[in-house]
Every structure is written in structure tokens, then in C-alpha cells.
Amino acid sequence: MDRFRHEQAVAAIDAANADDPDTLEWLGESRPKELLHAELMTRWVRRLDPDPTEAQLLAARAHHLRRWALHRSAYPEGRAGYLRWRKECSRRHQADVAAILADLGYDPVEVARVQEIIGKVDLATDPQVQVHEDALCLVFLQTQFTALADRLGDDKTVEVLRRTIAKMSPRGRSEALELPLGDRERAIVGRALA
Q1: How far, in Å, CA of 100 to CA of 55, rounded?
Q2: Model-wide pTM > 0.85
Q3: Share of the chain above pLDDT 70, in %
Q4: Between 20 and 30 A from 131 (CA), which of 39, 81, 125, 141?
């Protein structure tokens, strides 16, 4: 890995995500949501895979690159609309990161690998993509779980969480059980695992 070029890529991705108008409170500080998610994703990928490839690290950083630019409200309500929105977001994230990486001299094979990880290609059989998915799920639990439960109610959140847990590896599930969750969240997780 060319460390200088990698740092340039991370800086460009972070600069794009720093423009996120949506914020989250994290450790007492208001942070741009997708910038925070990118940082947490990177930490989780490093924890789940002690020897990650550069493609894994770049995919973690760019997994939701400028996600706010495509509004969820532009798609129909419900699961089908959500899935269409998420698929289009993934396409955009892949295209946006490809432009950044190409500008920095990454070759097409390297760019394609980052795009595959972001697109979750071969999730069931590719260990690097599984690490990426586990990290995504863990970041969701850390940063969005409580707000989702407040919005949907406990019963609907159990359904969502069951779908999330089904995509995780045993290691990812184990890490999820170690997260510092409140009593309500822990009860929802228990129901989802039952």
C-alpha cells in the first residue's frame, strides 16, 4: 500500500462526508453523520480483521459517501421503497469513490475491489465483504438503534433487527452482544435473537 496515496484518498473521502448536514451526537460532540459512520466503520473493520486490505479500509471509509445527497423521501414509503433507495445509494457511493480513487491514480482493479466490497458482492462467500457487513451492522447498533426503536416501536424494531442479525457472522453477533446497550435495547436484541 502506498501510504501517502491512501491518506490522500481517506482525506478526500472524509472531506466529502464532512459536508453532511445531518449530525449525530457522539461522545458529547455533534458530528457530521456520515463522517462519524466512516470513522466507526474503519475502527470496526480493523477490529474484526486485524490485517485488512487497503480495499477494505477504503470501502469502510466510503461505504455511505455523500449518502444525504439522495433523499430517502424521494422513494416510496415501506420496505420496497427503502430497498430501492438503498440500492441506488450503493450505486452512487461506488461511482463517487471510483472518481476519487481514479483521480489519485488507483488502477481499475483496485477501484473495482473497493466497489465490490461497498456493493456487498458475494456477501455469503467473501470474508472481506462479510467483515464489511458486520461493521455496518455494528455501526448501526451503535448510532441508530435507539432512534429507530423510538420511531418504529419495539415490535417492528425486533423485525428489523432479526434481518440485521441474519446478515452477520458469528463474530459480528458476538461483538454486538458486547456493545454497551441500555436495558430497552438489550431487551429488543434478546427478542430478536430468540
Answers
A1: 13
A2: yes
A3: 100
A4: 81
